[in-house]
Amino acid sequence: MIKSQELADVIRMHRKAAKLSRDKLAEMSGVGKTVIYDIEKGKETIQLDTLRKVLGVLNIKIELTSPLMNNIGTIKNEKS
Asked: The domain that contains 50 carries what CATH number?
């Protein structure tokens, strides 16, 4: 599981690589500028929809994995 500070570091790195200020990223994401600050400081109570907006602007994708995910293809084939 990703830790909030790891996510914060990835977002900060991408923002800086894109040469975006926190204010500009907030504007492009449609969120408040304090949200960007909170995310980059590792705040753990950011709303998922807000985080998705920021990640979308930075072109960061999150991949979901679990032991059950490996079986989804098998389950779909059995139902057919």
From this structure: 1.10.260.40
DSSP string spanning 37-79? Answer: HHHHTT-S---HHHHHHHHHHTT-------GGGGGHHHHHHHH
Look up residue 19 and give its DSSP letter. Answer: T
Number of domains in the chain: 1
Q: Are 18 and 58 in contact (CB under 8 A)?
A: yes
Compute the radius of gyration of the chain from its Cα atoms.
16
Residues 6+ apart with CB under 8 A from 18: 25, 58
The domain of 73 spans: 4-79
Q: Dump pLDDT digits (tens) for 49-77.
A: 999 999 999 999 998 888 887 776 655 55
Global model pTM greater than 0.90: no
Q: How far apart are CA 18 and CA 38, in angstroms?
A: 19
